Amino acid sequence: MSSFAPASSKKAKKRAAADGVDGEFFPGIEKIQYKPDAGPEDVLCFKHYNASEVVYGKSMEDWLRFSVCFWHTFRGTGADPFGFPTLHRPWEDGSDSMENAKRRLRAAFEFFTKLGVKYWTFHDRDIAPEGNDLAETNKNLDEVVDLAVKLQEETGMKLLWGTCNLFANPRYMNGAATNPDAHIVAHAAAQVKKGLEVTKRLGGRNFVFWGGREGYHTILNTDVLAELSHMANFFKMAVAHKKKIGFSGQFLLEPKPKEPTKHQYDYDAMTVIGFLKHFGLDKDFKLNIEPNHTTLAGHGYEHDVVMASAFGMLGSIDSNTGSPDLGWDTDQFPMDVKNCTMVMKTVLEMGGLTPGGLNFDCKVRRESTDLEDMFISHVGAMDAFARGLKNAAKLRQEGVLARLVKERYLSFSSGIGAKIAKGAATMEECEEYILQKGEPKAASGKQEKYEAILNHYV
């Protein structure tokens, strides 16, 4: 997850196209259809994703629960630290006006509808501009949310989750919940209060916290325990307000090891799980895993998905990828079928992601400047995950890997192994067992065999 580039000016310029509420923002692009026999250059159709097709007892739509993120898709400009914006959308007028915000939202809902997804996600500051103070900012947000409610009703779209941008405004340069200034922490809490309220109003299934600036650049000016404790208390305030307003959605924390801070407190899945358990928040939160963040932490693509699921803490997935050879968050579309297979294997093992989903926290490359590239990228990723789902289902149905893994740990089903597994063994018993049985024989891990088996299904 990352921010969007701010508008260049509050003063509106003349728009290029798509005049009026009923204007078409993506002319020439029809609703994406399922065409399994399409050729290699037919990229504006699904070749594998068939929403109603039943796989492993559920429809693809139910297993995959695809979502489009608003920030990259409709606030991304293609700008990077070395270059100016390259993505010039016809509905944008270059301003930070309410008119532009509403036009952008209408363009988004046309995109969602033509793509055929059921869910979307947003930051509060993606959809509505900040005002001169909190009251004006909240008024702006309410006005845009009025339109979002109307568009959801008209299209049947649902909000997978909302979140608050607590990292882009300069006030948060030293953090939000972990800021050394209590005034700023209070401002962040007030922002989250409103964010929760509008997410509830939009029927959000979840609410995400991503602490992009909750960390440090140097330990020399940082009281680590104080900051972590303040962050925990911040989350406890959020839990209390959630209960007060009757919001039934799931709270999610999103790990990331670094960027924009040198070290982010929510480093990876196990770090976040440890934090939540230490501060007594593990019953109130689950994790939103972004695989690009996982690889930035030095792990394999599916590692955090697997770890969070193993502890019953996987709530949702920001389905993207990065370039492992780079040291930053590139938020690319997930096109690697093997990676998608490994993710869906875990999702199938846990019976699904509901109320979470697969949110495309992805951005087209700054060189992919055509409007159709917005569709091509999402369609390709949806097809990759559809293939991953079918591969994972076959893996589960045939059970070859599961059987081999079970056999590998068979020694824990009886005798001393069963006592160790139950936590009932003692050091003395283990010593006596070795004295009687002698030196154990090392068994091959068969890594290459497991990899070859996986390749059979992908």
Task: Report on this structure.
- The strands form three sheets. An eight-stranded parallel barrel has the order 3-4-5-6-8-10-11-12, surrounded by four helices.
- 44% of the residues lie in helices and 10% in strands.
- α3 runs parallel beside α5, α6 (182-201) packs parallel to α7 (224-245) and α11 (337-349) packs across α12 (371-398).
- The chain is of the alpha/beta class and 458 residues long.
- It is globular, with a radius of gyration of 24 Å.
- The longest helix has 28 residues, at 371-398.
- The chain has helices at residues 60-64, 70-75, 98-115, 124-127, 134-155, 182-201, 224-245, 269-278, 291-296, 303-310, 337-349, 371-398, 400-408, 415-422, 427-437, 447-457; strands at 54-55, 58-59, 66-69, 119-123, 158-163, 206-209, 215-216, 250-253, 263-264, 285-289, 314-318, 358-360.
- Mean pLDDT is 95; it is low at 5-14.
Concise overview:
This protein is an alpha/beta fold and 458 residues long.
Q: Taking strands numbered 1, 2, ... along the chain, how are they ordered across the largest sheet?
A: 3-4-5-6-8-10-11-12
Instruction: Give the number of DSSP strands.
Output: 12
Q: Note the overall shape.
A: globular
H/I helix tally: 16
SSE pattern: EEHEHHEHHEHEEHEEHEHHEHEHHHHH
Gyration radius, rounded: 24 Å
Low-confidence stretches: 5-14
Global mean pLDDT: 95
Largest sheet: 8 strands, parallel, barrel
Structural class: alpha/beta
Distance between the termini: 28 Å
Q: Name the beta content range.
A: 5-15%
| Proportion of residues in helical segments | 40-55%
